[in-house]
Predict the 3D structure of the following.
Amino acid sequence: MKDFIIRKNSGLTYLTIPSFTKQGVVHGFSTRLVEGCQVSSYALDTGSDGKEEFKAIKNRRLFVGALNLEGDFWALKQVHGRRVFSVGEKVYSKGEEQMEGDGLVTNQGGVILTMYSADCAIIFLFDPVQRAAALGHAGWRGTLKGIGPELVKAMTSSYGCRPENIMAGISPAIGACCYEIGEEVIEKLYQVMKEPEMFIKLGRSGKYMLDLKLLNAKLLKEAGIQEEKVAVSSHCTFCNPDLFFSYRRDGGFAGRMMSLICLP
Ligand SMILES: [Zn+2]
């Protein structure tokens, strides 16, 4: 399967999707690395979560700048749901995150969409034909509520996109190597998916592990996106503390990585 690649600019390290770059779509998934800065809990933490609000906003602006963009950007109060907003104008969130939702779509050049995560997957979508882009936040709850298919639906209904033209990327997230799940998740998985066993692996500890990225890839495929157009990051956020924050690993004080997409 196609993977993300690691890039560096302006002292920051981030991941990108080669097929998106080829199309001129500005995008990226941040890591915690800042050149010349020790990897500490505060290295490029872009999540406010009630702590160090000022630092989070400054770090968000740093990442926007590292992608050679500037100015206002969209951010939502992410709530593990499936609500998607179609946005058509430049609005600065001030990091205040007022609107609740987990998906953003646009067809306007220069409009910057952002999402934040610390184990959840972020879905990147781009349609080179209708020139539309989307970002979605997909933890297990949002994934099983259908955030991926909702993003595709928003692109088709708002901008006339056809699913078969859409390219997709699924970001670094907690992998099946580390994502232990309990009854609640398994029950929901069996309610929603036709072949739930595909996404559950038996871990060394005898616990069940969820393959969140594979689950999202499958749901995008069911929404009509062609398998060969989906890039899936091989990085596990839990396994790579030098690169990523992880909610499961770091607990309630985990920082957040930032995802961004912007049409030229
Ligand atoms: Zn792992």
Notes: Confidence is low (pLDDT under 50) at residues 90-95. DSSP finds seven helices and 14 strands in the chain.
